[in-house]
From TrEMBL, chain A:
Swiss-Prot/TrEMBL GO biological process terms: endoplasmic reticulum to Golgi vesicle-mediated transport
Subunit composition and interactions: Part of the multisubunit TRAPP (transport protein particle) complex.
Recorded family membership: Belongs to the TRAPP small subunits family. BET3 subfamily.
UniProt subcellular location: Endoplasmic reticulum; Golgi apparatus, cis-Golgi network
Keywords: Endoplasmic reticulum, ER-Golgi transport, Golgi apparatus, Transport
InterPro entries, sorted: NO_sig/Golgi_transp_ligand-bd (IPR024096), TRAPP-I_su5 (IPR016696), TRAPP_component (IPR007194)
Entry's Gene Ontology cellular component terms: endoplasmic reticulum; TRAPPI protein complex; TRAPPII protein complex; TRAPPIII protein complex
Gene3D superfamilies: Trafficking protein particle complex subunit 3 (3.30.1380.20)
Protein name as annotated: Trafficking protein particle complex subunit
From TrEMBL, chain B:
Domain of life: Eukaryota
Alphabetized Pfam families for the sequence: Sedlin_N
The organism's taxonomic lineage, starting at the top: Eukaryota, Viridiplantae, Streptophyta, Embryophyta, Tracheophyta
CDD domains for the chain: TRAPPC2_sedlin
GO cellular component, as recorded: cytoplasm
InterPro entries: Longin-like_dom_sf (IPR011012), Sedlin (IPR006722)
Biological process per Gene Ontology, one example term: endoplasmic reticulum to Golgi vesicle-mediated transport
UniProt-recorded name of the protein: Transport protein particle 20 kDa subunit-like isoform X2
Organism: Ananas comosus (Pineapple)
């Protein structure tokens, strides 16, 4: 056979190299898989809250794995120990690998200090004004919300919670629709509320 | 408090030659060499061991189990004290002989562990039961030690 290169077949997945893989997956494949996931869960539950919880759990499993994999691949086995570090890791590296988007701006519009101010782009990470332990990632066009009438943002909230939890920053993460005037589609906001121990540890580490 | 002092206080006479607790992200890999037995344990959060392997001849059965537990917990305490002060994933606490071999051993085992973790049907934190994983870890142990 001329010119046929057969990829080496590995007997077991443990022998296969942990390669970078093909960077992109087709949107339709993902849409199909995700819609099946949602439909399957819809048959198992009675109400929307339960459905969102299940989507979150599915996302949690993804988040835990994504953290370890990305630490190994992108960051050369260094992990984040500080709160701001893990948040910027999420909204840059994780978002870039999962959704192909990069966040350009961090705005801290809080009562304490104004840290960075840059050109405003669609996606941003903000600190909530009411509580010190709340942060928000806000997205105009969340990938998973292209499909479905209700909030599939629960899946992404689950991913974020998985990453934070596996990194040692337990938090409650929820997804909300925030209506904005001038745009017909409400933008999705992911609200991250950290647990007490995280704040205490941050204070202790200075 | 170093491990050897701890052991002397507890009146344990076994000689610990080399001792390496290593923290890797969410799990801790602990490895020590005692007399002729080398023991390697992967511990998940909440200090539940998810994988253990012993290489070499095992001398005394009953005492060994308690000793393993003791060393394991002492190691984890040391690691946890230091865990939040450094951003490294791999921390070695030991006397500096044979560093490179151990470091490569841990890096390779970490890669194997990542491949296990990527399995969507594997619950993170549960015991690793794959015999293939076991074989590979032992092969790596023979290669690097």
């Amino acid at each position: 056979m001329i010119g046929v290169g057969k990829a080496k077949q590995y007997a077991n997945v443990l022998d296969k190299p942990l390669s970078r893989g093909r960077q992109e997956v087709s949107l339709s494949a993902f849409a199909f898989l995700f819609s099946e996931l949602v439909q399957y869960n819809q048959t198992q539950v009675d109400n929307i809250a339960e459905l969102e919880r299940r989507l979150e759990d599915a996302g949690y499993a993804v988040g835990a794995r994504v953290l370890e994999l990305l630490c190994h691949r992108e960051k050369g086995n260094r992990r984040e120990t500080r709160l701001l570090g893990i948040l910027s890791f999420i909204h840059s590296t994780v978002w870039k690998v999962l959704f192909g988007k990069v966040v350009y701006l961090i705005t801290f519009c809080i009562w304490k200090d104004n840290l960075y101010q840059k050109r405003y782009v669609a996606d941003s990470l903000e600190k909530g004004t009411e509580h010190e332990d709340e942060y928000m990632i806000s997205e105009k066009e969340l990938l998973v919300n292209h499909m479905g009438a209700f909030n599939c943002g629960a899946f992404v909230a689950g991913i974020v919670r998985g990453v934070l939890d596996s990194a040692g920053f337990p938090a409650v993460v929820t997804a909300h629709f925030v209506p904005i005037e001038g745009q017909q589609r409400p933008r999705t906001t992911i609200l991250i509320k950290f647990a007490e121990e995280v704040l205490r540890r941050e204070a202790r580490l200075g | 408090m170093t491990l050897s002092r701890l052991l002397r206080c507890a009146g344990v006479s076994t000689a610990i030659h080399r001792f390496y607790p290593v923290s890797v992200g969410n799990q801790q890999f602990v490895f020590w060499i005692m007399a002729s037995t080398a023991c390697f344990v992967i511990v998940s959060r909440n200090d539940i061991p998810i994988y253990e392997a012993e290489v070499g001849s095992v001398l005394k059965k009953e005492e060994a189990a308690h000793l393993h537990q003791f060393i394991l917990h002492a190691a984890l305490d040391i690691v946890q004290d230091l865990a939040w002060t450094t951003s490294a994933i791999l921390m070695l606490l030991h006397d500096s002989r044979n560093e490179d071999g151990i470091k490569s051993f841990f890096q390779d085992v970490h890669e194997l562990y990542l491949k296990i973790l990527l399995n969507p049907l594997y619950l993170p934190g549960s015991r690793i039961t794959s015999s293939h994983f076991d074989t590979k870890v032992r092969a790596l142990a023979r290669k690097y030690l």
